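Intended use. Records like the one below are meant for learning the mapping from a protein sequence to its folded structure. Do not use them to infer anything beyond what is encoded.
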Amino acid sequence: MHMRRILWKGIYYKTLEYLHIQSDTAHVIEGNITGLVNEQPLHVRYKIEANTQWEMSSVHITVLEHTEKELQFVRRDGRWHDKQGTIHGIFDACIDIDISLTPFTNTLPINRLKLPVGASEEITVLYFDLPAMDVKPAKQRYTRLAEDRYRYESLSSGFTAEIVVDEGGIVTHYPEIWERFY
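Structure written out for the chain above:
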């Protein structure tokens, strides 16, 4: 069993994130984000489960603002089911997820795709816009620029960033948005 602990400082939003990854026969990721988002105090807990190839099996997000709000999806047989068991066909093309308040979710497609340097791939992710609690499919592109660098592009919004990752595909530097300090 392999365990990692990571700390990120949010620059764009004033947040701190503690992340715990446990990898064995699957990857279990638990994150806690606390700070100010849109000048309001916020705490987010999330738990992600993925198989050894970094393909998503579940995500559970709890947002504590004035009240506690929850989002929960499980991926079975290539389909996303919410916590009531309802299948959301609009998300069928989404293998990966992207949670707006953490750099960790970039790790999922980076490790799943295993792009060689110079290669690029477009994907559709299940995007969680927090704290708005909006969930929708979003098109993205990852281009591997070097062994430790990727260009991330949100094809939905036009946002682009060059991110630096460690040997495990985990973000160490996301310019002007996040900085890892452990």
